[in-house]
Write a structure and sequence with these properties.
Alpha-Beta Plaits, Arc Repressor Mutant, subunit A, 4-stranded antiparallel sheet, 5 helices, 36% helix, alpha+beta
Length: 152
C-alpha cells in the first residue's frame, strides 16, 4: 500500500517532469537521452501523465512589461460566499487579473494583477471593491521565481 506522502510518479517519471519544466519544447529523443529511455517510452510516459492529470498543460511565460503592464500587485478580497459566482464571472472578463485563488483565512480571494499604471491599478481595485473589502500590495521586485517543482 502506498503512503499518502509517496509520489504517484517514479524516479524516471520525475526526471521527465523536471526536463519538461525546464524546457517543455524538448523532443522525446532529447528527454530520453537524459533519462535513459527510448523516444517511444518517453512519449508513452508523458501521454500517461497527461491522461492522469499529472501534467495539466504546456504554457508560454509571457513578459507583461512588453505589453505595457509594468506594475504587478496582489489584491486580497474579503467577501461573502453568495457573491462568489458574480466574482468568478467578473474576473473572467478582466485581462489584468492573471491569477485568482480562493483562500482560507479572513480574506476570500487573492489575485495577481498586472497594470499599466497606478491609476489603472486603482480602477481595477475600485471595480473589485464592489464585491467586498480589498487590500492591495504592489510588487517591488521578485527575487525568487520558481517554476520547477522537484517533487511534491
Amino acid at each position: 500500500m502506498k503512503s499518502k506522502l509517496e509520489s504517484p510518479v517514479d524516479e524516471t517519471g520525475m526526471k521527465i517532469l523536471l526536463e519538461l519544466q525546464m524546457n517543455a519544447r524538448s523532443t522525446y529523443r532529447d528527454i530520453g537521452k537524459k533519462v535513459g529511455l527510448s523516444s517511444p517510452a518517453v512519449a508513452e510516459r508523458i501521454y500517461k501523465m497527461e491522461e492522469t492529470g499529472i501534467i495539466n498543460g504546456y504554457h508560454a511565460d509571457i513578459n507583461p512589461d512588453v505589453f505595457g503592464h509594468h506594475i504587478m500587485a496582489f489584491i486580497n478580497l474579503t467577501t461573502h460566499p453568495e457573491k462568489y459566482h458574480k466574482i468568478y464571472a467578473f474576473i473572467e472578463t478582466q485581462k489584468e487579473i492573471v491569477e485568482c485563488h480562493h483562500i482560507s483565512g479572513r480574506e476570500s480571494f487573492i489575485m495577481k494583477v498586472v497594470s499599466a499604471s497606478i491609476p489603472h491599478l486603482e480602477t481595477i481595485i475600485e471595480k473589485l471593491s464592489r464585491f467586498g473589502e480589498t487590500k492591495s500590495s504592489i510588487v517591488l521586485s521578485s527575487p525568487v521565481k520558481k517554476t520547477i517543482m522537484a517533487s511534491i
